[in-house]
Amino acid sequence: MRENNVSLKGEPEWDPDSEKREHYITFIVNQLTLEEKTDMIHGAGFFKTKGVERLGIPPLTMSDGPMGVRNEFYNDKWVPIGYSDDYVSYAPSNSALAATWNPQLAYKCGRNLGEEARGRGKDVILAPGINIKRNPLCGRNFEYMSEDPYIVETLVVPFINGVQENDVAACVKHFALNCQETNRLYVDTIVDKRTLHELYLKGFRAAVCKAHSYSIMNAYNKVNGSHCSENKELLDDIIVENQQAIEMTGIYRDIINGTRELLSSVIDNRLNNVMKYLTSITLVMAVPTIISGFFGMNVRVPLALATHAFLIISLATTLICGVIFVVLKKNRIL
């Protein structure tokens, strides 16, 4: 609910009509501050984003996974809470499902998963997993459908349709080429364009263009030298520029471009501020050295007195630097 349940100035009435609905959503998005937009695309706890209470935007809650909705976790650690009312059906693994070659059964599995996710108050279910099984030793092969892209693209569509008819977003994963668990954060998969599109992306294309999956999860690995979460070929050239996927990627494109501009701006500004701060420290810390040098070389004073002067001035300048740092941090300059 909004703060004090007060309508915003100029706020249009909510209407299920698609055009009026889009107008309402656009109005709400335009009210968001940059900080609120940033918060909304970051985790605010396990399987949860941050909402915007003043605009009536609730947190987005998610859960694994392809074989059933996970039990509830603590907000800040990977430990089940231990509730007795969060039990759900155990579905067959995606590999077992694909072995049936049965689109109707894929739809039923997706529908059951969506029903139980919605019953648990989840907005997004992190499923299905559709990476091609390239390596038989991959630790998540059970979670992926098949080594055959045709089977994947045939079964992923009814599965997602079943999930999303329950007002739950499917999150097809992992985009792309997450074909091994060993060193999955660092392994670099080198693949040519034809192989990428004819084998590894067929399932994702069907998930987006035919089933209209509401979300996609990036993979952990690198592809052709760049991590999937910042891979221009995957994100810009394939997803954003694919006009068939425009319904799904309209908001996604805004988030990607806005985040890039934000990060670029933040990094540039903070680097400039840090350099200014370090330069200030260098100049200030040079003062005691210069003064003590003057005492030692140009003024006839005992060595002990010059040493004491150096220590006192050094302490004073250190305190000054500390005060400067606190002020900069308080004003969010550093």
Provide a descriptive summary of the structure in words.
By secondary structure, the chain is of the alpha/beta class. It has helices at residues 18-31, 34-40, 94-98, 103-119, 149-164, 193-200, 202-209, 232-240, 246-298, 303-330, and strands at 43-45, 48-49, 62-63, 124-125, 169-175, 188-189, 215-218, 222-223, 226-227. 49% of the residues lie in helices and 8% in strands. The chain has a four-stranded parallel beta sheet. Strands 6-8-9 form a three-stranded mixed beta sheet, with no helix packed on it. It starts with 17 loop residues before the first helix and ends with a helix.
Number of strands: 9
Overall 3D form: globular
Rg is 28 Å
Give the amount of beta strand, in percent. 5-15%
Which residue ranges are poorly predicted, with pLDDT under 50 across at least 5 consecutive positions?
243-259, 265-269
Assign a percent range to the helix content: 40-55%
Topology as H/E string? HHEEEHHEHEEHHEEEHHH
The biggest sheet amounts to: 4 strands, parallel
